[in-house]
Design brief:
This protein is an alpha+beta fold. The chain has a single domain, classed as Cyclic phosphodiesterase (Cyclic Phosphodiesterase, Chain: A). Helices cover 33% and strands 29% of the residues. It has six helices and eight strands. The chain has helices spanning 3-7, 21-34, 57-67, 94-106, 113-116, 131-142; strands at residues 13-18, 46-52, 74-82, 87-92, 122-126, 149-151, 154-161, 164-172.
Length: 181
């Protein structure tokens, strides 16, 4: 092990379903408009796993590379989700839910209680506000939000450190426009 590798902090790992550019720009604009600015330290994202052990990084990298050999899953934005003190937009994507299940099966024994729960795909656009603020945003968006179809770009592997995510590697789905070049 190199001195640099030994100095790198051993931080929890996250896995995301990576949004394509247009869907990311749309969701991130909503997040910037409605998430409390002092708390908004991340771009819009779709989290699949929140806290995997860093000791499993090599295994996770191999697994994500294998799964990214598939075509990009079709998805669609859905209903608004009320988190009490926040708002999210549900994402309908049976293929991504199945991928999550496959990853969970293959990483059995390494999952936290939160990561072992059934997956509810979503993008959080508001959090840590009063219930009244959340309800007001939901009422506003209910009249303007229309479903959007897209294909996920890939899977992202991030390290969690000091409230920020650091991209370790993006695994682009085969056939995704972002994988050509």
């Amino acid at each position: 092990m190199s001195a640099d590798a030994a100095a790198e902090p051993r931080v929890p790992l996250l896995i995301t379903a990576e949004l394509p550019g247009d869907a990311l720009a749309w969701a991130d604009a909503l997040r910037r408009a409605h998430y409390p600015p002092e708390r908004n330290r991340l771009r819009a994202h779709v989290t699949l796993f929140h806290a995997l052990p860093p000791s499993a990084e090599d295994e996770i990298r191999r697994l994500l590379a294998e799964l990214a050999a598939a075509p990009p899953p079709e998805a669609r934005t859905g209903r608004l989700m009320d988190f009490g003190k926040g708002t999210a937009i549900a994402i309908e994507c049976p293929a991504m839910v199945a991928l999550h299940g496959e990853i969970a099966h293959r990483l059995h024994g390494l999952l936290t209680r939160q990561d072992a729960q059934p997956l509810r795909l979503h993008v959080t656009i508001q959090n840590k506000v009063t219930p009244q603020e959340a309800k007001a945003l939901q009422a506003q968006l209910a009249t303007t939000l229309t479903p959007r179809s897209f294909r996920f770009k890939g899977l992202g592997l991030y390290g969690w450190h000091d409230g920020l995510w650091n991209l370790k590697r993006e695994f682009i789905f085969r056939g995704s426009p972002q994988s050509r070049g």
